[in-house]
Amino acid sequence: MRINPTMLRRPPAGISPCRRTADGRGDVDTLRVASVPENHVYVRHIGVPGDRVMRLDDPPPAQPANPDVWWPPRMLDPEWIRENAHAFDVFHLHFGFDAKAPADLAAVVATLRELGKPFVYTVHDLRNPHHAEPELHDRQLAVLVPAADALITLTDGAATEIATRWGRRAKVLPHPYVVDEPWRSVARPSSDKFIVGVHAKSVRANMAPGPVVHALRPIVQSIPNGSLRVDVHTDVLTPGSPNHRPALASELREMEGDGAIDLRVHDCFTDADLWRYFLELDVSVLPYRFGTHSGWLEACHDLGTIVVTPDVGHLAEQRPCLTYRLAQDGPDLASLQEAIRRAFDGQRIRADATARDCERAAIARSHRSLYETLLARSSASSTR
């Protein structure tokens, strides 16, 4: 059983503490970044107003489902890159290449290299949470990681894994805060209950909520005023839906009928609904089978919800949390029970809003500095 330090983590190397004075470099031109995507909370929060970094709006897909959809990203197309090369200085990839063939990604990389455009790749996922098997993502990474002019990742453990697998050094920059104001400063509601939550969402490939809920049932029942809340999207319980899971639906309805769980069935939360949900929980248990990093964990940290995560990937390095061991057939019961007990007996940790603001500003400076370094290198190379 492992518990992270009960304090805010010190910023990684390369992240300076919050500065209140100008950096003295004087005015510089705005850097234009083709970001894949731009409309994502992580991407929005790695910049700050006044950092003189402008990220291009996501081009609408050929057949958008709605105006807010950025996928599949049109920027991952050599033709788009050629037609818009005049509009950006740096190409920065984050997400959105799930369905791309490795050969298509190689063509993107080759086009960027031909046009002299620096290519940055932030390695969020070393295992794709939407892919049941790792093979496709491994082949995609085998194209992107060696080809990038610079790599970023979120934790030291991920950086070590990247170095081991590809011999590449990745700059470690933490995940910025997820929850905007005023929600980050909203007081948590008082309650006599100790609420442990599991959110199954639409049960993506890396989730196994059934065994986690079954394991939690007696553990939460043994805690004074303990309540086990289980949320799931409507499509999981709807016959005929592509995400319908009849066995899971039957199990959850049976436990609901026994009064063992507080089952909530609904469509995808809005941001406000999600933040309200986190504030209502004491603990959020992540039902993952595999993974690398987690924005969900970061949002919980912003709002003071204790996270209990399996010992997969590098999630436990991100922020203070509790972990349980993952056995072949589900959670290790002893370590899960210990984690829930520690959450019940321990101190709640909520991110300091000012510290998170300072961290975001430092992350933005680091991105700006990296882009400048790559552009200077590219300029020097082109004049030889």
Brief write-up:
This protein has 384 residues and is an alpha/beta fold. Helix content is 35%, strand content 15%.
Using brief descriptors, characterize the structure shown.
384 residues, alpha/beta, Rossmann fold, 2 domains, six-stranded parallel β-sheet, 11 helices, 15% strand
Protein described:
With 384 residues, this protein is α/β, with parallel strands linked by helices. It has two domains: 31-177 and 357-382, Rossmann fold (3-Layer(aba) Sandwich), CATH 3.40.50.2000; 183-345, Rossmann fold (3-Layer(aba) Sandwich), CATH 3.40.50.2000. The chain is 35% helix and 15% strand. It is built from eleven helices and 14 strands. It has helices at 41-45, 78-83, 102-115, 135-147, 156-166, 209-221, 246-257, 271-280, 295-303, 333-345, 353-382; strands spanning 31-36, 53-55, 90-93, 119-122, 150-153, 170-172, 194-199, 226-233, 262-266, 283-285, 306-310, 322-324, 326-327, 330-331. Strands 2-1-3-4-5-6 form a six-stranded parallel sheet, with helices on both faces. Helix 5 (156-166) links the parallel strand 5 and strand 6. Helix 3 packs parallel to helix 4 (135-147) and helix 6 (209-221) packs across helix 10 (333-345). The longest helix has 30 residues, at 353-382. It is globular and about 70 Å long. Residues 1-27 have low confidence and may be disordered.
Task: Write the topology of this structure.
Blueprint: E1 31-36, H1 41-45, E2 53-55, H2 78-83, E3 90-93, H3 102-115, E4 119-122, H4 135-147, E5 150-153, H5 156-166, E6 170-172, E7 194-199, H6 209-221, E8 226-233, H7 246-257, E9 262-266, H8 271-280, E10 283-285, H9 295-303, E11 306-310, E12 322-324, E13 326-327, E14 330-331, H10 333-345, H11 353-382
